[in-house]
Queue: 2 jobs
Job 1
Amino acid sequence: MSRRRALVVGATGIAGGNLAQHLASKGWDVYGLARKPQPGPGIRPVAADLLDEKSLKQAVSGLDVTDVFICAWLRQPTEKENVRVNGAMVEHLFEALEGAKNLKHAALVTGTKHYLGPFESYGKTQAETPFREDQPRLPGENFYYTQEDILFAAAKCMGFTWSVHRAHTVIGYALGNAMNMGVTLAVYATICRETGRPFVYPGSHEQWSFLTDVCDARLLAQQLEWAAITPKAHNQAFNTVNGDIFRWRWLWPQLGAYFGVEAAPPPAETAPLETQMSEAAPLWAEIAAKYGLVESNVDKLASWWHTDADLGRKIECVNDMTKSRELGFMQYQETPASFFELFEQLKKSRVIPSF
């Protein structure tokens, strides 16, 4: 493979951050774009706001990239606003890259809401499980669909290939991320251990018992690279999950045992994290001071609302990986290890205590 030059958009997020590190470790030249980029080994920071067209063009001007990986989004109060804002971000990016004459491939990371609908109508209509990439779009607005259409149009106009990666509940290292179940559960379990309260499953009884799956951020990074450099994977959409399936009633006690807390099933009336953790801010500040942690603001670590959305679903959610397997992507990740390895990294980085 000739040396590839990647622009990772959203390089401080859970998907983009892990991707940038992976590509750099594989010998790619990597530019990491974010509003407040962080330098890392082999990653050149690019500061830009995707909604500021002028600054974005200035930031990427002269970057002779071969690949673009879009791993960024901004949550808005309604799906209509999600469509407008997140669609504009992708449009502005490709307008800014019109001078990138060697651009070969662009990848877009979306998610399982492709099959479940946006947050405001989450699961009210859904595709049949297991979710497959060739299932038709759901009716109504969905900013994932808008971003896909902009990607397809840009690829046709500018002559590059594309891939779309529909990841489900990404588990990986990232701080200050709006969709971060792994870190959220680590913070929740730490608070339970420190206070002696039980580690109560905060979601629905249905999700407690249904089969489901998740996606390790490191596996997502591998699939993104594979799709970029594998011709038969070009111009395709792919589900992205670990490859195993599980029930939360099986995994939850394992997470509790890791932290040495009493794991409890969902109570008769569900107890979402936003309710359970409503007074978590001062408590976490005390824990951070006691153990010398790097972040005392719990709101920069935990995304209670998003974890509640994932664990509170009352519908089955399983993604089919046959398409990737048939085309040669055979990577697999055991889900408990995704969590435990993340927890070890959080301890090493002093995000949570080692106890």
Job 2
Amino acid sequence: MNNTIRKLLARLGSLSTPIETLADDADLYAAGLSSFASVQLMLGLEEAFDVEFPDHLLNRKSFASVAAIEGALTQILEQRKVA
């Protein structure tokens, strides 16, 4: 999951800092992630993981770091298992 997130960030995130140099908890917005790029990233994540982000996860906090994205995706996938 982490590698896929990082690949999508490299392709869609328009980061000013190379993703390879960022820790999982690094602030992606400080690294150059814009609101527009976060939407593009969300769409890429939805396609890659065959999920849909629920409204309550459509916020800046969910995309603040690789770890936050991984946590949001894990939450979505766990919810799908329960349903």
